[in-house]
Recover the amino acids of this structure.
């Protein structure tokens, strides 16, 4: 399928060529069009120098933040379009950014600085391609291959290691053999990449449809920035619930999870504490007592280290911590857990438990899945019926408790908890008058 080039992007190309400068679409937008996927951003490269680019777009809104590196962002007909002067890059002495960029006149030199062959194709408005590194063929074959010598390209910019893995997981492409070998051998360059940038690529990797394959083949790369994963990779678990080792179980759970970041991070980290909690009983059966709490603590550290935002981190930690709780399939228990976690986290937890079972011994799976489906159904009914399940749903609140004579302080919370417990257990109706009477009787 071919996607239309937005009219604004077309106009930008036309303005540049009308002014006498060569101009091409380049990078992700060309690659995605060739893959049959709608591009999500539009990059143009041109023979015009930065100042000349600026002069071309005086009548349009432009952002000059990247001017030093030759980039002008143009807002054309509602579409943001990055226009970059042909450039090559100086050495990367810090492994993060080029020491300098040099503007050049040749498109080929500009394409040669790009990371992978599939990202180094230029396209004219009429659809004709410039593809000096065989990117088209690699897209057709589903291959990720460095432009130039892989090791040198990874050592220039360590982020490319993670970009290779992210593209592999997102597109289901294979990393070509020499590029793959260089990924493994040069993973230490990640030390020089900012945590935020690793984070962004890791998120893309984990939410990719082929994340599992990448985790299987490139765990050593992940272990480089998250060494806590390493003991899990070699963990054996001999017990009736598991037929795989710790890492294969983890990968299967990640694969079974929807491509949602919180769920995928949770599955990647849910058993991270197992190696440290392992004990083997006299029958040779392995146990991992207390591993959910240990995993939650480790997950918290790992996510902090990679600068995840608080909301994502807290949710993942909560789900990891509770991934093994038994939720009895009873109205009261379900309401209690709904109240404790809130509906969103509750349903995520059911999903976590579902995909966790799918990574376990097959004969155990069917029964567990049926029970989880039933719990989910009941929880949905509880919510649909508006049945009380959390403190905020009680017919009385802290002010009422104080007005009824309880001294402000911790006793207020304890009173409300006790009332909620009575409502949940069915002893008392969630009725304001009844609850107020109960408080005054205390
Ligand atoms: P997507 O936008 O889908 O994540 P992309 O390949 O377009 O993928 P961008 O970050 O938008 O990624 O970069 C645009 C282009 O710039 C790339 O296609 C590639 O040609 C070049 N590029 C980006 N990052 C690098 C890098 N670290 N090293 C070399 N070239 C890069
Ligand atoms: Mg892009």
């Amino acid at each position: 399928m071919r996607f239309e080039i937005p009219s604004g992007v077309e106009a930008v190309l036309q303005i540049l060529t009308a002014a006498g400068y060569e101009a091409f679409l380049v990078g992700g937008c060309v690659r995605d069009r060739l893959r049959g996927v709608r591009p999500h951003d539009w990059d143009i490269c041109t023979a015009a120098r930065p100042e000349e680019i600026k002069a071309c777009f005086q009548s349009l809104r432009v952002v000059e933040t990247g001017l030093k590196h030759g980039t002008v962002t143009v807002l054309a007909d509602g579409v943001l379009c990055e226009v970059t002067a042909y450039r090559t890059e100086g050495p990367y002495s810090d492994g993060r950014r080029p020491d300098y960029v040099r503007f050049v006149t040749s498109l080929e030199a500009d394409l040669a600085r790009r990371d992978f062959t599939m990202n180094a194709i230029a396209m004219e408005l009429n659809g004709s391609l410039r593809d000096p590194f065989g990117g088209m063929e690699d897209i057709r074959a589903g291959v990720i291959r460095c432009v130039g010598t892989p090791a040198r390209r990874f050592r220039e910019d360590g982020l490319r290691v993670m970009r290779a893995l992210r593209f592999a997981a997102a597109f289901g492409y294979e990393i070509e053999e020499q590029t793959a070998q260089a990924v493994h051998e040069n993973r230490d360059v990640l030390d020089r990449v900012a945590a935020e940038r690793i984070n962004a690529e890791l998120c893309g990797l984990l939410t990719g449809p082929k994340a599992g394959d990448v985790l299987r083949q490139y765990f050593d790369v992940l272990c480089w920035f998250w060494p806590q994963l390493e003991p899990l990779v070699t963990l054996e678990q001999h017990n009736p619930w598991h037929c795989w080792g710790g890492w294969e179980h983890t990968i299967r759970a990640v694969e079974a999870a929807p491509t949602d970041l919180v769920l995928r991070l949770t599955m990647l980290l849910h058993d991270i504490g197992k190696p440290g909690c392992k004990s083997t009983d006299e029958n040779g059966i392995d146990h991992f007592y207390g591993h959910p709490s240990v995993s939650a603590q480790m997950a918290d550290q790992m996510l902090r280290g990679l600068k995840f935002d608080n909301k994502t981190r807290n949710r993942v930690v909560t789900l990891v911590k509770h991934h093994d709780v038994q939720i009895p399939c009873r109205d009261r228990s379900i309401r209690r857990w709904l109240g404790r976690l809130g509906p969103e986290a509750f349903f995520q937890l059911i999903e976590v438990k579902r995909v966790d079972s799918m990574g376990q011994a097959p004969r155990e799976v069917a029964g567990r899945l049926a029970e989880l489906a039933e719990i989910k159904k009941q929880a949905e009914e509880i919510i649909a019926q508006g049945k009380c399940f959390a403190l905020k749903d009680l017919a009385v609140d802290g002010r009422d408790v104080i007005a009824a004579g309880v001294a402000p302080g911790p006793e207020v919370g304890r009173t409300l908890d006790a009332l909620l417990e009575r409502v949940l257990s069915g002893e008392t109706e969630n009725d304001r008058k009844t609850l107020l009477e109960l408080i005054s009787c205390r």
About this structure: The mean pLDDT is 92. The chain has 22 helices and 13 strands. Residues 391-440 form one domain.
